[in-house]
Amino acid sequence: MASSDKDAVLVEVIDNVEDFPESFRCISEAFGRQTHDAIWIGFNPGWDTPEGQAAGVERMIRRWKSTTTDNKGNPNAVYLKATLADPDQPERRIIVGVAIWVQVSSVEGYGATNEGELSEGAAEALHPGLESEQRFIQQMFRSLLKDRVKYTASKAADNPPAVMCLDLCATHPDFQRRGVASRLVQWGLDEARRRGIPNATTEASTMGRHVYQRLGFLPQGSDTVYEIDDEFSNRDLPPNLFMVYSRDAK
């Protein structure tokens, strides 16, 4: 998969733990520093501290290691890295984008389960002793994924009864507008085709929507309405739009 063009974006599957610290830093710059995404920050408290970075990396590694497979042996989650030549050291490549694609299904054996709920234990682990923050992240997570859960359930009678979901896509701010996100998204669409899965979804930020639409995703309704307690109403909530790619519709 190597490219002789040092300016080319190279997309590869992450297959070793050594890539996760750099991957998490890349995601942090996009969702933490650039967009201040409340959901991502809620899942990664202290992201802007050395301790928070280490904890975030460890969570990513645990999730990566816990990846299951479908009944054909395909991994139900694929972690991707996009690299470019380092401007300061052109002989080495640096991670400038990260994506996580997940195969989900409401039918056993055809993908990861798609419940759209964050357990009380997981919320407590993220925000020990902070009941309010635990409720906030649980409610935000449930609201964000409700359309994905509903859409996946609607495909239970399809063959296969599976959906590919772009769970995360981040490009380092210093390397945006260079086709990084497009390559990461296209990789997942190509993989869905290889697996015989015609439908893909994502929860699109304002910044990412134009990329997804250009590649064939269509908006489903309007922006996500977050069903949260009144005490959180003054918080800055990230705009997200549920979008669907359907090969059958093209």
Structure description:
With 250 residues, the protein is an alpha+beta fold. It has a single domain, classed as Gcn5-related N-acetyltransferase (GNAT) (Aminopeptidase), CATH 3.40.630.30. Helices cover 36% and strands 19% of the residues. It has helices spanning 20-34, 38-43, 50-65, 120-126, 131-154, 180-195, 209-214; strands at residues 10-13, 77-85, 93-104, 163-171, 199-204, 218-219, 241-246. Strands 1-2-3-4-5-7-6 form a seven-stranded mixed sheet. Strand 4 (163-171), helix 6 and strand 5 (199-204) form a beta-alpha-beta unit. It is globular, with a radius of gyration of 18 Å. 34% of the residues are buried. The model has no long low-confidence stretch (mean pLDDT 95). It holds the Pfam family Acetyltransf_1. One of its GO terms (molecular function) is acyltransferase activity, transferring groups other than amino-acyl groups. InterPro entries: Acyl_CoA_acyltransferase, GNAT_dom, Trichothecene_AcTrans. This is N-acetyltransferase domain-containing protein. Residues 94-248 form the N-acetyltransferase domain.
| Average pLDDT, all residues | 95
**CATH architectural group:** 3-Layer(aba) Sandwich
Output the radius of gyration. 18 Å
CATH T-level topology: Aminopeptidase
User: Helix count?
Assistant: 7
Class based on secondary structure composition and strand pairing: alpha+beta
Work out the number of β strands.
Answer: 7
Number of domains: 1
> What sequence of helices (H) and strands (E) makes up the elements?
EHHHEEHHEHEHEE
**Helix percentage range:** 25-40%
Strand content: 15-25%
Uncertain segments: none
Placed side by side, the strands forming the largest sheet appear as 1-2-3-4-5-7-6
In CATH's first tier, which class applies?
Alpha Beta
CATH superfamily: Gcn5-related N-acetyltransferase (GNAT)
- Largest sheet properties: 7 strands, mixed
Shape descriptor: globular
Oligomer: single chain
Organism: Xylaria grammica
Protein name: N-acetyltransferase domain-containing protein
Pfam family, one: Acetyltransf_1
GO molecular function: acyltransferase activity, transferring groups other than amino-acyl groups
